[in-house]
Amino acid sequence: MSTAPFIGRAGVFAVIAWLVFAVTSPLAASPIKSDEDVIVFPVSADQQVDGSWMVPAHVWVFEPVDWTAANGLVQALATQLGIADIGDRADTFTERAKWFAVDNEGSKPVMLEMAGERWTLEATGSNGHAETTFTFRGSAPSEPRTTLKVILPDGDHRKFQGNVEFVPATGVTVISDIDDTIKISNVLDKQALLQNTFLEPHAATPGMPALYKQLAAEGYHFHYVSASPWQLWPSLGPFIAEHYPQGTVAMRHFRLKDGSFAEFLGTSSYGFKVTAISRIITRYWDHQFILIGDSGECDPEIYGQMARWFPGRVKHIMICLLYTSPSPRDCN
CB of 59 within 8 A of CB of 41? Predict the structure, then answer.
């Protein structure tokens, strides 16, 4: 009996196995190229019993869009984001919306360096993001924050870096919402929300910068949790730096090809925020927490749940009241 069919089938299996290995193996990953950029998001470190620090690094690797060669792309992107007319705000819109049009780069093993130690993160996923927790065994720097920078291939002299805050084991931490808590967004009116997100100058909520400055003067630490997508961080980051204390950020993942932006804004943020806030409280177990949000979405329900889940840990809950009849909320 001929063995040719068996040999052919085995050969096919061998090829398939090789392809699977090639796709999943680190060898398939490629270094950061000169036409690709990296954003290193701000994070915080928590100290372990042995004195080391756990750092949950988070990066985004992407190839920017060449807008000079993208005729019609600006208005097409505006339409896709749900904005009928950008009027004379094309520059503002492009600066904020361009992050939704980038080419996310997967399979990128980003190397980071901090205070003389280096780590290679897990390769980026299809959305260009990679999140890896690593152990820093050095001493906390004298300053509360230090730089976490990307190590690029030889000959690439660009600088991509972010900040790491070393948060002590005990203290008080503020967990804050962003939209309509520290920034005027008008989340209850989707068209107004789109205008404030992409076309209007970012405006701080009256009274909140002074409050946060006072809290920072007390030595409190800050974490910002928002149901908005990560693509808005490049514009929100400078806004927060101008008006509010520095802190970490947690936002949601979104891709235009997965659905419309307006539909994404309409989805419940309850589950995402509950998970994100729970992780922060669990990480800093010996901290007291101040939770600050607004009445526009589900912050009162979420913060109440946190107080029940973590009795004695929530020191204060502060809610900014929005004087507009709230739409029905999916808070479960």
Answer: yes
| Residue pair 33/99 in contact by the 8 Å Cβ criterion | no
pTM for this predicted structure: 0.87
Q: How far apart are CA 123 and CA 114, in angstroms?
A: 19
Q: Which two tokens stand for residue 228?
A: 């908005």
- No. of helices (H) and no. of strands (E), the chain: 9, 14
Q: How far is CA 207 from the centre of its chain?
A: 26
Q: Give the span between the Cα atoms of 233 and 39, in whole angstroms.
A: 10
Q: Identify whether the C-beta of residue 36 lies closer than 8 Å to the C-beta of residue 30.
A: no
Integer-rounded Cα Rg, in Å, for the chain is: 23
Is the Cβ–Cβ distance between 41 and 113 less than 8 Å? Answer: no
Question: What order do you get walking across the sheet with 314-320 strand by strand?
Answer: 248-252, 221-229, 171-176, 287-294, 314-320
Burial 37-55 (b: 16+ CB within 10 A, else e): bbbbbbbbbbbeeeeebeb
Which residue has 């979420």 as its token pair? 302
Using CA atoms, how far residue 147 sits from 116, 235, 274, 308, in Å, is: 11, 20, 29, 36
Q: What are the pLDDT tens digits along the chain (332 aa)? A: 444 444 444 443 343 333 333 444 444 567 899 999 999 999 999 999 999 999 999 999 999 987 766 657 788 888 888 888 888 888 899 899 999 999 999 999 999 999 999 999 999 999 999 999 999 998 888 888 999 999 999 999 999 999 999 999 999 999 999 999 999 999 888 889 999 999 999 999 999 999 999 999 999 999 999 999 999 999 999 999 999 999 999 999 988 877 777 677 767 789 999 999 999 999 999 999 999 999 988 899 999 999 999 999 999 999 998 765 455 566 76
Host H or E run for residue 214: helix 208-217
